[in-house]
Amino acid sequence: MIPWLEADDPFPDVSQALCKDSEAPGLLAASEDFRPERILKAYKSGIFPWFSQDRVILWWFVDPRMVLPTDRLVVSRSLQKKVNQVQKSMATDKRWQIRFDSAFEAVIRNCAAPRKTDSGTWITDDFIENYLKLHEMGYAHSSELWFDDELMGGLYGISIGKMFYGESMFSKVSDASKIALVWMTHFLHHNGVRLIDCQQETPHLASLGGKTISGDEFSRHLLEAIHQPSITDWKPLPLTQNAD
User: Fold this and answer.
1) Residue 84 resides in a domain
2) Mind listing the pLDDT tens digit for each residue in 143-177?
3) Does residue 33 lie within any of the structural domains?
């Protein structure tokens, strides 16, 4: 059994999350309360919402945790060619463009659309409504790849202090979300963000340079990162610009 949280109930300590040998490893609590304030409290503790049914929100803290060090992104040779193409176009004909936060709602709705291999989605209307509020509050951000003013792919996540929590990605053309990730990762690294929280371990994330760390190590990093000054100027940077 996991605790049910009323509106004013605090989250239980993350050490109470179900163990990895259970049917739902990492499951910590459930609630109907999904206000932005609740969501922000969750992220600050390393807790994230995932899967909901009949307005029930499940809250998770997985251990080990997959993270992507911003100085360790793996860019394959074929992806690098596409990144170079976009970079060149941005300086010349501008048909390809990287934008941040210019179409956050479109990004999250594309992420919510059913995939070819899965007809369902955990990004419900309730998720979208509250993450749009977080975007308006300055916490939720998107990285977007455009071609001839058409959105080709992107990703979105939550930024608190010097921590970025990656949420979801989508592509309409091959590698579009990865290209958006290249720019976002470079931007975050330049602005002092050391880790992107990837939540769940997957081979896809591992191929991009993701690695797993213990829940304790993740929590220690989080405690330091969320209390640092937040990023205020969300504009893509040239990839040749080095981190401070």
Assistant:
1) yes
2) 999 999 999 999 999 999 999 999 999 999 999 99
3) yes
